[in-house]
Amino acid sequence: MPREDCLFTGPGWYLADQHQRQEMARDIESMDGNRLLNSAVDDLAKYFAEKYQVAVPELDMGNLVVDHRETEIEVRGESLRMVMGRSQPSYVKGTEVEAEIPFTGDAEAFKVQPNPFSLNPPRATVSGSRVVFTVVGTSLGATDVKREIDATVTSIESCLTNLRGNFAGLNAQLFDEAKAAIEARRTKLLANQNMVASLGFKVRERQGAPTTYVAPEIRRRITPVMPPASGTPFRPEPALSTDDYEHILAVMQSMTQVMELSPSAFRAVDEEALRSHFLVQLNGHYQGQATGETFNYEGKTDILIRSEGKNIFIAECKFWSGPKRLAETIDQLLSYSSWRDTKTAVVVFNRNRDFSKVLAAIPDAVREHPRYKHDLPGSSETAFRYLFANRDDRNRELFLTVLAFDVPTSTEHGA
């Protein structure tokens, strides 16, 4: 049983670790289905990870305060006196010094037994967001009091340090566990509604399409807030499959081979001409469904692929003229993206102007955008993958790939 006058005497850290994981899993399983389906997976996983992580307290030693008062101290042994034939303890006047240390983090953590643990745990209690303990004696001196306070603080800090190590694994793994549980429940919910097939569809690739240009295989804890989501029934929209998205990007990236093999053919071309070369290749694979300057949502985008009346891929093509222009291009792309669009790209052309500096500048320019969420795996030296939020609905997420191409120098070309 935990001792009320001592810290770190409750259940062991491993039981607390398992309790947090199990409670999070139950919380995800009991969440309203429409709420879960209408929320961005990563945002929801972050919420649950923050909710169930253990924020091991940090002592604010700079604000330690002490107070003192006179108290009665029990004297045992030879000083027992007889009252009505029974022995009774005697009391003498003494001094009690009370120390209070504010902390940030989870107060419940003070009840958890760390590993390793001490057989002589620190004697203290928790009151709100403060650790409180006392030093009592009949003839206390400043040196004695300071020594006792330092010893208690050292003991508490040692236990907290051990707990941080104990819970490091839990806190690092909760996001991935939450994400896996959320995705598993999404799959189950959609299967129960018999709508899994409508989440994505395969774009029909032209049989026998030429492969000439196919790329080679290669404190005080802040309470987390549930991400906003519509409470209306979830209705999945058709979306471009990941495999098709990768294939489209591969077709576009393969154009660099053509530029490298025939530089004279691209020396004087402008953005529109370069875009047309991409369209020729894409239409060769996707039965004429790639179009240029096609109206979509609020504007017209450079490259748009439609299937069965749906916009499934959109891209913007621009010559490099600095990070600010790239940010403006992303704004332009997002303004064209309707709620259904989930696969996008920005194609950056560079005219042999310090290409290495261009490549170094792209990631910072993208990450500073207000709709940027995080990097995605699969980036390469000239292709950068990101997850973005839709301009109007943060729960609707976009895949954004920035492709950078170095094209031959021209004496006359766009800025």
Structure, explained:
Strands 8-9-10-11-14-13-12 form a 7-stranded mixed β-sheet, sandwiched between helices. It has 2 domains: 177 residues, no CATH class; 165 residues, no CATH class. It contains 8 helices and 14 strands. Strand 6 and strand 7 form a beta hairpin.
Q: Report strand order across the widest sheet.
A: 8-9-10-11-14-13-12
- Cα(first) to Cα(last) distance is 75 Å
- Number of strand segments: 14
Mean pLDDT: 81
Which structural category fits the helices and strands?
A: alpha+beta
Q: Nearest-angstrom radius of gyration?
A: 32 Å
Shape: elongated
Tell me the helix content.
25-40%
- H and E string: HHHEEEEEEEHHHEEEHEHEEE
Report the portion of residues in β strands: 15-25%
Number of domains: 2
Low-pLDDT stretches are: 195-199, 209-222, 411-415
**Helix tally?**
8
Tell me about the largest β-sheet. 7 strands, mixed
Topology (SSEs and partners):
Elements: H1 13-30, H2 33-37, H3 41-52, E1 58-59, E2 65-75, E3 81-83, E4 86-88, E5 90-104, E6 125-127, E7 130-137, H4 142-192, H5 242-261, H6 271-285, E8 290-296, E9 299-307, E10 310-319, H7 323-336, E11 343-350, H8 355-367, E12 372-375, E13 383-389, E14 397-406
Parallel strand pairs: 10-11, 11-14
Antiparallel strand pairs: 1-5, 2-5, 3-4, 5-7, 6-7, 8-9, 9-10, 12-13, 13-14
Short précis:
It contains eight helices and 14 strands.
Tags for this entry?
8 helices, disordered C terminus, alpha+beta, 24% strand, 415 residues, five-stranded antiparallel β-sheet, seven-stranded mixed β-sheet, 2 domains, elongated
